[in-house]
Each structure stands twice: as structure tokens, then as C-alpha cells.
Amino acid sequence: MSILYMDLFSGIAGDMFLGALIDLGADFNYLIENLKKVDIGEYEVVLEDRKRGGILSKGIRVIFEKSHHHHTHFGDIKNKILDSKLEDDVKELALNIFSNIAEAEAKSHGVNVEHVHFHEVGAVDSIVDIVGSAILLSYFNFEKIIASHVNVGSGIVDCSHGKFSVPAPATSILLKNIPIFSFGVNGELTTPTGAAILKSCVSEFVKEFPSGEIVNVGRGGGSNDYENWCNILNLYEIRYRDGLFREKVMMVETNIDDMNPQLYDILFDKLFDVGALDVFLENVIMKKTRPGVLLKILCKKENIENITKVVFENSTTIGVRFFEMERMTLKRKSFLLDTSLGKVEIKANFFDSRGWIFVPEYESLKEISTVKGLPLINVKKVIDLEVKSRKDELISEVEN
Fold it and tell me: Which pLDDT band holds residue 272 (cuts at 50, 70, 90)?
């Protein structure tokens, strides 16, 4: 499994991120050809070497006519991306990043999201940064992106309407619920564009460097060169041995002894809807020897609030407890397979010593059984045989 780890000891800006992705191994010409699919006028993208604190890194500089540097509405940017010939996943990520910035700016200035004026962000260089980031993340197709805590810098920053303390208003909103710190530099280390990229792409922020094997390293240099400071964004492509992936998760628990068992069905559905990774019940003996159940929910840390809200709204409990734990999972993928009986979702998992295992999803088999009026056991037998006979084809599907 290949993941991206972002070392944010010197924050993040759009040009740093693009430069680091190129240094990590992305094809610069691929970036340029895909950027041409968005109509944003005449401009030139230059890839340059940047030495920061004596360390060599890459950076992106955009050259364009000054007349292009004007205020642009979020609606204008959205339409340009939607009308482009970019791949759907690239459009979706680019729009997500821009939407996050628009919502933060709208909240800061008290205006409607669609009418937010993008000052720096609306300029050609920032559109290149954001759309380019989406293009290159699609190019790598990492299975997960994690990051360190974020250095925001310190001091005063020049905003469009005057000076403001670091982090800037929109940046501070975008960094809500993201662990930050301030160290080393009197200046803005994390920009709104950089913060929006983190909010849109990173699934987990960690204190320690992840365990695993470093496959590639990419370094992106910031536009500012500070004295005695390496203003660099480090990106690491990490591979886990044996196809194993380790991550920190939360376990939420509560004891219940006075709830109609029929209500657990909808409770489970609602918990999965808000991000539960797993939900299960254990039989327990509670105080006064009353029989009860122990409800356990595995989830990501950022989903704790939504998980507990669902539990309180849909059960009789009056309190929950939670604690952090670590889990280890195999490399996993899922895809739709055309079979003689129709489309079937296939779940694939991988471990080095035994290779890929392919398992038809029960719900797909159940649907075929219902629609075609066939016994479920017969449907499973047919699909299992097809999956077995087409194993080489399926391996090619998940590895490409």
C-alpha cells in the first residue's frame, strides 16, 4: 500500500505543494498538458530549483499578463472547471478545494458564497496551484494522505483589506479541527490555498512519522527564503510491508440494558452513514445482574462528535466513553465486475505471502438472487467460479 505523508514543519502553500509533487516524481509535462484543459487565458508555468536553508527543492512560478490579475467570483471559477475537459475526479477535488476557500472567505466577510471575490486565489497562479494539485494527486492516486501537525508561522500578514495576525482569517477557519503550532518564523507559513488543500485531501493528522518504507521523497520550496530556516514542504511516499496498513482509530463504547432490540437496526445504519468503520454488540451482565449489551463503534477521531450525536439521538444511553487505539488492515480495493449474471461488486484484499484474494460482495449476490429469482447459494456458486477462472484479469484490474 502506498500513502502520502506530508511533513508540514514549515507549513504549506500551493506552489510549494506542486513543486514537491513534481520532485516526488510526477511528470511536469503531464501537468502542463492537463492544465491546458481549463480556459484561463495565456500564461506560462515555470518549474524552478529553489534552495531554502541550503536544501535543494522545487517550486512552481506562473508568468502571466498583469491584466489577468483581477477579482474573480467563485461562480466564475466553478464554471471554468466544470466546462473544462479535465477528468471527473480532478474536477471534483479542485472544486472541493475552491469551495472550502469560498466558504471560509464568505464566513470571514459575511457575504454569499457564490459572490465571494477571490483576490489572490482568483488569480491565474492560484488557479494553477489548486487545479494543478488536483491533477497531480489524481496522477499518483495515493490510497491515503496523512500529515503532521501544521506550522502556521507568526506575526502579521497583509490581507486584501489591511493587515491581520497570522493565521489569516480564512486560513484560521480552514484549519478548524486541524492540529496547528507556531514556531521558527515571523511570517505566514500556511496560506489559505495550502490550508484548503489540507482540509480537502488529508484524512489524518499525526504526531509521529508513520512507520513503513520510504519509496520516494519530494521537496517543495516556499516563495520566501527565511534566514536560518528551511522553508520547505517535505512529501514522502510510504509503502507498508506485506500490504499492511497501520492507523490510529477511536473506539466508542456504551452499556445499554433498557432498549428495544429492534431499534439497533436503524442505529447501526445511522452510525455507518456518519463514518463508523465498524459497529458491533457484545452481551454483558450489568449492575444488579441485569443482562445488557455493550455497543462498540470503531471510527476516525474526526468523526467522534457525529458518532456520539447519533448514539444519543437513537439509543437510550445517557453516556459514552472513548479511547484511542491502533489497528492494522490489509491493502483493500473494490470494483464492479461484469459477470454472466450481471454486475457484481468485488472486494479485493492483499497480503504479500498469499497475494490477492477476491470476494464477491454479499449485497450484490443478494440483489441478483432477488431480481432473477435464483437461489442465493446457486448465484454464489456461479460467481465464485467466474472469479476463480478470471483471477489474472482481476489482479490486473487492481494493480493498474
Answer: very high
- The answer to whether the CB of 352 falls within 8 A of the CB of 243 is yes
The residues pairing with 117 across neighbouring beta strands, listed in sequence order, are 73
User: DSSP letter string over 49-117?
Assistant: EEEETTEEEEEEEEEE-GGG---EEHHHHHHHHHTS---HHHHHHHHHHHHHHHHHHHHHHT--GGG-E
Ordered by where they begin, the domains of the chain are 2-239 (no CATH), 247-319 (3.30.70.1380), 330-399 (no CATH)
Interatomic CA distance for residues 39 and 47, integer angstroms: 21
Q: pTM of the prediction?
A: 0.69
pLDDT at 398: 83
Q: How far apart are CA 80 and CA 94, in angstroms?
A: 11
Cell numbers found for residue 328: 492494522
The three-state secondary structure class of 347 is strand
> The dihedral of CA 139, 140, 145, 147: what is its sign?
negative
Cβ 58 vs Cβ 49: under 8 Å? yes
Burial 177-208 (b: 16+ CB within 10 A, else e): ebebebebbebbbbbbbbbbbbbbbbebbeee
> H or E segment at 205?
strand 204-205
Amino acid 177 reads: N
DSSP 273-290: HTT-SEEEEEEEE-GGG-
Rounded CA separation 190/205 (Å): 15
CA angle 343, 344, 348 (to 5 degrees): 140
Position 34 scores a pLDDT of 96
Residue 109 identity: H
How far is Cα 310 from Cα 58, in angstroms, rounded to an integer? 46
Cell of 345: 461488486
